[in-house]
């Protein structure tokens, strides 16, 4: 039943996109831009580095913010496996160390398999810590920031912890302007919109 409902919602979404494509180009560009939540840089207790990257740019952005003094520690949140030998989070940690982030400033969360679980397991970690700023900053791809912010704020709603985000600004593979002209960009934007709709309904 749930699957049928999701499929119907996805069909409605696709129909709306086709209608927008036939009527007004700025609407489509606006759809992509809506997925991008504005960057907010405020002193935080943790930088939360979300998995799902393909080029290391999320990790590099997290290191950039860490060096700027945005937060003293980085939580790496991902339980995805790259192969039978290693996980995504271990690869991200390896890059953090390569970029001279000490072990003592890295916290590893390896159970999450979705954005919701990223938030859930990060909350478990954060609630066990003494927080000076009562704030965390998410780092993920630009087009993933809107959904990440929504989910994290839902999960952290009963706490007094602020949630902010900074996009990785890695737009080499996914373009937000005229995205329907590029296959990979179109696939990413449509998929992200479908996930956003499902998350809003589900959570």
TrEMBL record:
GO biological process terms, semicolon-separated: Gram-negative-bacterium-type cell wall biogenesis; peptidoglycan metabolic process
Protein name: YdcF family protein
CDD domains: YdcF-like
GO cellular component: plasma membrane
Domain of life (superkingdom): Bacteria
Classification via Pfam families: DUF218 (PF02698)
Domain spans labelled DUF218: 45-193
